[in-house]
Each structure stands twice: as C-alpha cells, then as structure tokens.
Design goal:
Elements: H1 2-9, H2 19-29, E1 35-38, E2 44-48, E3 56-62, E4 67-73, E5 78-84, E6 96-99, E7 104-109, E8 122-125, H3 131-135, E9 143-146, E10 151-152, E11 156-159, H4 162-177, E12 184-190, H5 198-207, E13 211-218, E14 237-242, H6 250-262, E15 267-271, H7 279-282, E16 291-297, E17 306-309, H8 310-324
Parallel strand pairs: 3-12, 3-13, 13-16, 14-15
Antiparallel strand pairs: 1-2, 2-12, 4-5, 4-9, 5-8, 6-7, 6-9, 7-8, 10-11, 11-17, 14-16
Helix pairs in contact: 1-4, 4-8
Length: about 325
C-alpha cells in the first residue's frame, strides 16, 4: 500500500495534464476490472460488474494536483507564474518546482515582499542566465508541480499531492480486494477536480449512478493551535457530513456509519467549513444523485508536505470494500 502511495504521489499530474498518473493507475488495476477506458476529459473509468439486481455505485478520486503555470519569462531568465488550483502562497517561498520536461526551479520572493506576499511578487529561478537559455528548458504556458519526494515515517507518510493520490490509492487497493460485488462499481479516477470538479461532472453524467461516493482528503484539527475540528490522524476514516460543495445525503451518511460500526472499521465524523470534493458535482448530475464522501484525514493540505496516517488509509479501503456488497434498496 505504501509503495502504491509513493508511486502515485511522485508522479507528474497538474490539472489538465493527468496522463502520467492515469497510465500508472491503469497498469495497477487492468487485471482486476471488467472494463477500463478513458473519456474525452481525461477521466479513467474502471468497471467491476455486479449482479443483475444490484445498483450502480460511482466512486471518484481525482488524479490531478495543484500546480503552477508559467506566464512570463524576463530577459534574465526568471519565470513569473500563476496558480493552477488552490495554491497557498505562504507555502511557496523556498520550495522547488518541476516541469513536465524535467526542468527544476526554486521559488523566491522580491525584496520586502514578505510584508504583503502575492503571486506577482514571486518568481521561479531555473538556473538560466538569459531568456534564450530559459526558453530551451521551459515555455510560457507550461505547467509545473511541487518537486518533493515521498517520506515514510512509519504510520505517518508525507508527500506532495496526497490530495488526492491517496484517494486514488484507496480505490486501487479496494479494486484488488473486491472479487464478486453485489453492485456494479464504477471507479472513476477523475481529471481537473482542483479547478472546479470538472471531470466528475462529465463522468457522472455519462454513468448515471444510483449512488456517488468521493474519496478525497480532508483537513484535521489535531495540530498546535489548529482550527477546531474533530478530525485527527490515526482515528479512522472520516465520514463527511458537509463541506462547501455538498451536504451529504442523510441516508448515505447513515449507511456509511452503520457499515463502519458493523464491520468494526474505525471512523470519525467530518464537518468541513470550506472546500469540496467530486461529490459536489456528482450529486447535482441530471435529476440528482444521493452522494457522500469517505475522507482521508490529512495535515498540511495544499502544501508540498501533506501528511496522512496509513491506518486511516486502510480504514477507508475497508469501508469502500464493505459498501461494494451492500444492499442499496433503502437509498
């Protein structure tokens, strides 16, 4: 499981450029599914067929990560950039960026800009001494990601893009575990979640699921002087109550809670003040889809050093597996 998380988090995949990630996932799951394909937006859709009287469940985990896009290269070879998704400015200074072509650069700030730090006061240094040299490495319009390695700290793991490669890892592991599900399962590894839940919207429209479940990270309240939130690392899967994009369907939330209790899967309840998941798009598809989310507690979200607990990840896998065989007549 840790190896899967490492491989996925170290892959290159900013919003709109998720192919490296989806190809990696495809190689991991193709022997465990009945159907596998991709749509025009870049979603990877894996199907595991259930019985005739089962329903369609759509599980969604997004493959894209937050990133940067080059907007200007000056005469000295320094890059100016914009954000792709919710990049936290305070996490940027001194960090490194990697571009698809392999170029690596350091982010830094203009003199005195620490007092009022904004994106237009930051630049990327890729070691070029002129615009001409820089253009041999990177072009305007090219996307970059945080350049950080995966670290195994025991139960705790740190990496860039845990949001949401760890959700993808949960679905990969669940797919390998589930053999003959009662329900027909659509495991959708979605594109462009970080810029507006776009892939999930189109995938759900085509699938028309009876139930939608997002697998994504959520914030925690267990660090020094953190926001008051009853989610912590090591206390199990987080079952969503609400976020900015979704009020979880009460029957879906209650079903996840009852399954966790029945299977003795550790869980906690998630009430997220800000942020959203693919479930926010799924539940508004066509005439509506009962939806919820299973969340992986994560510290330092949208930074280059997102931290999860492997025990929570495994609890999320167990909950997905339990749901695959559940009679959904009451939903």
């Amino acid at each position: 499981m840790k190896t899967i998380i490492q491989q996925l988090t170290e892959a290159f995949g900013p919003s709109g450029f998720e192919t490296e990630v989806t190809e990696l996932i495809k190689s991991m799951i193709e022997e465990h599914v009945d159907e596998l394909g991709a749509d025009v937006l870049g979603n990877l859709i894996a199907v595991k067929k259930g019985s005739q009287d089962g329903k369609k469940i759509m599980f969604a985990a997004h493959t894209d990560e937050i990133g940067l896009v080059v907007t200007h290269i000056d005469d000295k070879g320094f890059l100016r950039f914009g954000n792709v998704g919710g990049v936290g400015i305070s996490t940027l200074v001194g960090n490194r960026v990697r571009f698809a072509g392999g170029a690596v650069g350091a982010i830094y700030q203009e003199k005195g800009s620490w007092k009022d730090l904004t994106l237009d006061k930051l630049y990327i240094d890729i070691g070029a001494e002129s615009k001409e040299e820089a253009l041999k490495k990177v072009k305007v319009g090219e996307f970059g990601i945080f350049h950080r390695e995966f670290e195994d700290l025991g139960n705790r793991l740190i990496a860039k893009s845990m949001d949401d490669r760890v959700g993808c890892a949960v679905l990969v592991e669940a797919l390998k575990t589930i053999k003959n599900p009662k329900n027909t399962l659509y495991f959708v590894f979605t594109a462009q979640e970080e810029v507006g839940l776009r892939g999930a919207r189109t995938a759900a429209y085509g699938i028309e699921p009876d139930l939608g479940i997002a697998l994504d990270v959520t914030l925690t309240g267990d660090m020094p002087e953190a926001r008051r939130m009853d989610v912590s690392l090591g206390k199990g899967a987080a079952i969503k109550v609400k976020d900015s994009s979704l009020i979880a369907h009460p029957k879906v939330k209650d079903l996840l809670v009852s399954l966790a209790e029945e299977k003795q899967i550790p869980y906690q309840m998630e009430v997220l003040d800000a942020g959203g998941t693919d479930a926010g798009a799924i539940h508004l598809t066509k005439a509506g889809v009962p939806s919820g989310a299973i969340s992986i507690p994560t510290r330092y979200v949208h930074s280059p050093s997102e931290m999860v607990d492997i025990r929570d990840v495994k609890a999320c896998v167990d909950l997905v597996v339990a749901l695959a065989d559940k009679d959904l007549a009451a939903i």
